[in-house]
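Progress report, Aim 2. The chain analyzed during this reporting quarter is listed below.
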Amino acid sequence: MNDAHGFVDLFCRLWRGNLRLKLLNSVAVICLTAICPALKQGAIEAQEASDQPYELKGEMPGISMKQFKANHRHPDCFNSSARQTSCHIRDGVSFAGMTAQTFTGCTDALCTSQGIFADFFDGRLVSLSYGVRCGGQGDCLQIIIRALKQKYGEPTTETKSSAAWKNRVGTLKVSELDGDISITSTLTENPTTKDI
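Predicted structure tokens for the chain:
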């Protein structure tokens, strides 16, 4: 339960308790018994309305492929099916001060895990990933996690090598493997992962 829901519950319990002690008017008690659940429902609806996919450097799942291509010069895109398209950006990619060690024409094995990766379904972005390499700047994963905590608060889960944030509409995951750091924002309802 988030802080808003807990506050509303506490407020309603205290309010009803004070009214029971101070008011003998049963109409007022009945009225607040009806109002407090409505206040709580309003807090829940406000939280749900504020849920959005996690944004990475100005882009988030849900944007159009046209908008993505307008934001990036020369994305390397291919259709994996009639409804699915994947794009890879290699040049000039960085995240939280970490730079991708890749460029157009790179054939090195590192180039396949670095850069920007975007997956589209019916022309809408459903997954956006940044792959960067730690260039001896200290604990790169923790630098990125701290930056994301400043923006999104505490992660839902966190280990030594990863962190994840989740809300009703999206997931943000950060992980490190052999010096490669992956930062991925996806829609919760990702049609590319559905079996039907």
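The helical segments are 3-22, 26-50, 65-71, 140-152. The longest helix spans residues 26-50. These observations will guide the mutagenesis work planned for the next reporting period.
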